[in-house]
Structures are given as C-alpha cells and as structure tokens.
Write a structure and sequence with these properties.
The chain has 8 helices and 7 strands; from the N terminus they run βαβαβαβαβαβαααβ. The chain is an alpha/beta fold. It folds into 2 domains: 195 residues, 3-Layer(aba) Sandwich (Rossmann fold), CATH 3.40.50; 36 residues. β2, α2 and β3 form a beta-alpha-beta unit.
C-alpha cells in the first residue's frame, strides 16, 4: 500500500503511539506533520525522516489548533492521538483533575477532528486514538474513562455526518500500551501501593487475554489499514486492539 501524495497530521506525535504512527505513515509514502506541546520530542521524530515535519500546538486551545491547521496546509488524514491519564479513586478526584482529562482527551479530539473536517474537500480519513477505556470501565481513572467514552461517541456521531462523502471517521481503542504513559502508570502503582514493578506491570497485562502490553506499531498498522484500499465501508467503528479484552 502506498499513501504517496497524501498528507497526514498526527497530534501527540512526539512519543509512543504518535511517533509510531509518524514512522509508519512516512514509510507508506505520506507527508507527515507531528504536533504536540513539547517541541523537543517532535523534532526528534521529525529528524528520523525527510517526510516528517513538526509543528508544536496545544490541542486543548482552539486558537492553537486553528494555527496548526493553517501552518499544515491541506491535510487528507487527521489522527487525534494526543492524550493523557491520571489516576485516583473517584472520591479523591479533584475538579481540576477532571477538567484536565476532559480537556486533552475529549475537547482536544473535538477541536482536532473539527478543524480537520472543515478543510477536507474530497477524500479524507478522521481517526481518533481512544482506548479500551472508551468501551468499558476501569477503576481509579473515572475522568479518563469518561473522556474516552466521549471521544468514541463523538467519532460515531461524526461518522454519520460524513457517511455520504468520501470520508470516514473511526476510533482505535488499544488496551494498555507499551509506552511511556504506561510506564508512568506502573510507577504510580508502585508508589501508591508498594507493589514491586513486575507485579504492577502484571496488574495491567492481566486485562489482555494475551497477557502482554500492546505495541505502538500495532496501533499504527490498524491506522494504515483504515486509510488503505477496501476500508471505505469501515465508518463509525471503535476498533479494539487489545488481544481479545473487548
């Protein structure tokens, strides 16, 4: 499959799944823009390929997102990947923590996909990287879970609006990933429970029937599939990448 001539914009593109997406799409011949709040990791990703360029932006800020798309120029594929996670029992969750999770995981997805759709004239693909937390409940991450459920609902609604156009909208829902975010979650479990790191990791991998973390390149492969030939009928779906968890 080749995506030569297509331009892709990926938020949260400096690390983890975002970096894997950038590498995969550049490898398929696309021109890639990676965006995020921190310039340094974006530049590191951009340095790996002449097909990748970095444009810093904050997906929670409407003006910043508008400036991102203006700087990017016409984009065929928009991947709303930026996200963050915090954990605490619901009773100890502050309003500020709730608002942070909604801002990046839901509002950021809304602003990114809205801006992407507004500038699409012909063929297009809108993809949100959600989570299995958008399909089920997890303890101690209520704001994150609510935001990801909202992102899945948003994408399903968008899919109905674009169904008569040559555009599709879908969500990818990975389980616990082998990324920096998961390493931070493991460290948090260790800090709060005294559990050793191996047991903390096992507490996450047990959710996956394959008893492992999902690799970022597996998410990238699914995103490429949604942009390839034969994907036209895949619209409004929330696709788990979780070894059978959902």
């Amino acid at each position: 499959m080749t995506l030569k001539g297509r331009q892709v914009l990926i938020t949260g593109g400096g690390t983890g799944v975002g970096a894997a997406l950038a590498t995969a799409f550049a490898g398929a011949g696309a021109s890639v823009i990676v965006s995020g709040r921190r310039a340094e990791p974006l530049e590191k990703v951009a340095a790996t390929s002449d097909a990748i360029r970095a444009i810093p932006a904050d997906v929670t800020d409407e003006t910043s997102v508008a400036a991102l798309f203006e700087a990017a120029g016409p984009v065929d594929i928009v991947i709303a990947n930026a996200g963050a996670s915090e954990s605490a029992p619901l009773g100890k969750t502050t309003l500020e923590a709730w608002e942070r999770m909604i801002a990046v995981n839901l509002t950021g997805t809304f602003l990114t996909l809205r801006a992407g759709l507004r500038q699409m004239q012909g063929w297009g693909r809108l993809i949100g990287v959600a989570s299995t937390a958008g399909l089920k409940g997890y303890a101690y991450v209520a704001p994150y879970t609510a935001a990801k459920h909202g992102a899945v609902g948003l994408i399903r609604a968008i899919a109905q609006e674009v169904a008569q156009r040559d555009i599709t909208a879908n969500a990818l829902c990975p389980g616990f990933l082998d990324t920096e975010m998961t390493e931070r979650s493991i460290a948090n479990i260790v800090d709060k429970t005294g559990m050793d790191a191996d047991k903390a990791r096992a507490s996450l991998t047990r959710h996956n029937p394959q008893k492992r973390l999902i690799r970022p390149d597996e998410v990238a492969a699914a995103a490429l599939w949604l942009c390839g030939p034969g994907s036209e009928g895949i619209n409004g779906q929330a696709i788990p990448i979780a070894g059978g968890e959902i």
